[in-house]
Amino acid sequence: MRFPGKPHLFLAGLSVVAITSACGGGLLGGLLGGGGGGGSNPVAKFAYVTNLAGSNLSTYNVNASTGALSTGTGSPVATSSGPSAILISPNGKFLYVGGTNITAFTINSSGTLATLAGSPFGAGTDPAGLAIDPGTKFLYVASLSLNQISAFAVNSTTGVLAAMGGSPFPAGSGPAAVAIDPAGTFLFAANSVSNDVSAYTINSTTGALTPVAGSPFAAGTAPVSLTVDRSGKFLYVTNSTSNGVSAFSIAPGTGVLTPLGGSPFPAGTKPVSVAASPIANFLYVSNSTGPSTVSAYSYDGTTGALTPIAGSPFAVAATTSQGLIVDPTGKFVYVANNGSDKVVGFKIDTATTPGALIAIPGSPFAAGSGPQHIAVLKL
After folding, report:
1. Looking at residue 8, what is its pLDDT?
2. Which residues lie below 8 Å from residue 37, measured CB to CB, with a gap of 6+?
3. What pLDDT does 379 receive?
4. Paired strand residues for 299
5. d(Cα 18, Cα 229) in Å, to the nearest integer?
6. DSSP per residue over 96-122, as a string?
7. For the segment 10-49, what is each residue's pLDDT rounded down to a tens digit?
8. DSSP of 242-285, one letter per residue?
9. Intervals of the chain under pLDDT 50
10. How far is CA 290 from CA 2, 100, 192, 318, 340, in A?
């Protein structure tokens, strides 16, 4: 029997390497940015998928040229029960998994995992979403059932977590996901029951959270995933039962959210996960039912408005899509599909139709039982 997906999903904060570039001219330059191209040598990297029903992780080697996945050494790796949210620390050393608690690992040079001392770490009830600041100093956990955000100090050498003073911090009802802006200044939480977004400023010294003026901000119905774009100017939120993407501008310095003109933007049926490219003005949303698809958009770098990419939505060759991620190089999109125990992979077109998705040869790739979310490491 398939294990049904949880209604909470985490997508933001999975990129391990922040990649920025200046914008160039023309459509392709404006979407992809300027700057140098990649070298001829592929970059070795690894991927990890949480298997909710199997209480383990599938590990993979990623072919950096094609995006194809092959089973990693030692896969699967046991976790605490019900693993869903997953992230890799920005320094590339540690992997954290949210289940009944937080299971933590060091990542070896071969991509294999070793359990951290003290793991698992308690994080309240039902840790639904994870986010970590760019400096690998603070980890935040959305507790779906307790309506709060638990916060931890991260030892950047060992990866060990220590509860932060003042934690937990109040959130809205049913916080399902959390995301941090690229500067590490603000944290945002999607509250799936109260249908809004809580916004906080992050104390750069202590990591403590302070609510932004006017927080929480209204979203659509059942917001379950959110992401901040690479510029830190825009926040995008999937509303799983109103089939749209709420979009906001983020006020510099204050973190106040203002709905964009045209928001919410249409998505597919039951959009459950959203991710922005780290190198281009592209946004992707996984739609879990009717059938499973990925909606692809370009967005205006000034207004943040979304425009569907030609050919969107793109068919997913598996059922019940859940977590979606753009890999840290901005070349590939991966979708976990817990209805068919698969991971579907796409290459992002940069030539014919920029931002369009092309199936990776060999996709879909086998996962464990009930795959939920994905993290990708670039070395």
Report:
1. 36
2. none
3. 67
4. 306
5. 11
6. EEESSSEEEEEE-TTS-EEEPTT-SB-
7. 333 333 332 222 233 332 333 333 333 334 444 659 999 9
8. TTEEEEEEE-TTT--EEEPTTPSEE--SSEEEEEE-SSSSEEEE
9. 1-42
10. 17, 30, 21, 12, 15
In the block, which residue shows the tokens 């692809």? 296
Q: How many CB atoms are closer than 10 A to CB 305?
A: 16
- Alpha-carbon distance of 228 to 242, in angstroms, equals 20
Q: What angle do CA 330, 183, 302 make, to 5 degrees?
A: 65
Cα–Cα distance between 39 and 61 in angstroms, integer?
A: 20
Q: What is the rounded CA–CA span in Å between residue 151 and residue 163?
A: 6
Spatial contact of 348 and 310, defined as CB atoms under 8 Å apart:
no
Q: Which two tokens stand for residue 108?
A: 């070896």
* pTM score, whole prediction: 0.89
Residue type, 220: G
Residues with Cβ within 8 Å of residue 33, at least 6 apart in sequence: 20, 21, 22, 23, 24, 279, 280
Q: What is the pLDDT of residues 53-111, one digit of tens each?
A: 999 999 999 999 999 999 999 999 999 888 999 999 999 999 999 988 999 999 999 99
- Residue 27 CB burial class (10 angstroms; 0-12, 13-18, ≥19): exposed
